[in-house]
Design brief:
Blueprint: E1 7-8, E2 17-18, H1 50-60, H2 66-70, E3 79-82, E4 97-100, H3 102-117
Antiparallel strand pairs: 1-2, 3-4
Bound molecules: zinc ion (2 copies).
Amino acid sequence: MPGSPPRPCRAPMCAGKTTHKHGYCDTHADQAVTWKKPAHKKSGRGGRPWRRIRERILQRDKGLCQPCLRKGIYTPAAEVDHIVNEASGGTDVDDNLEAICNPCHKAKTQEEARRGRGVDA
Ligand SMILES: [Zn+2]
Ligand SMILES: [Zn+2]
């Protein structure tokens, strides 16, 4: 980038300045080799760490299927589901997620698929 101002070198105690992208002066450029940006893996969910979200929701809901719990049934949850599904504008916020068991999840997915196809409409 032309015109980008020199920044202080990232190396500790170095008074040097640099215009390098890695942020080290020429003397310390070798240190930049080990410094890497954390890789942003595409998880297919907008880069959000779904596994961690999932664990958090399962913990919050005490590992119990919430739709079952509302009916007074205690079923161990196997999944974390979007209350408002992503196709309908739902997001990965905690409020839109709940623990769910496989049968409930399947039923909900089928229900959503049916509505999506407009068979009932
Ligand atoms: Zn330096
Ligand atoms: Zn259930």
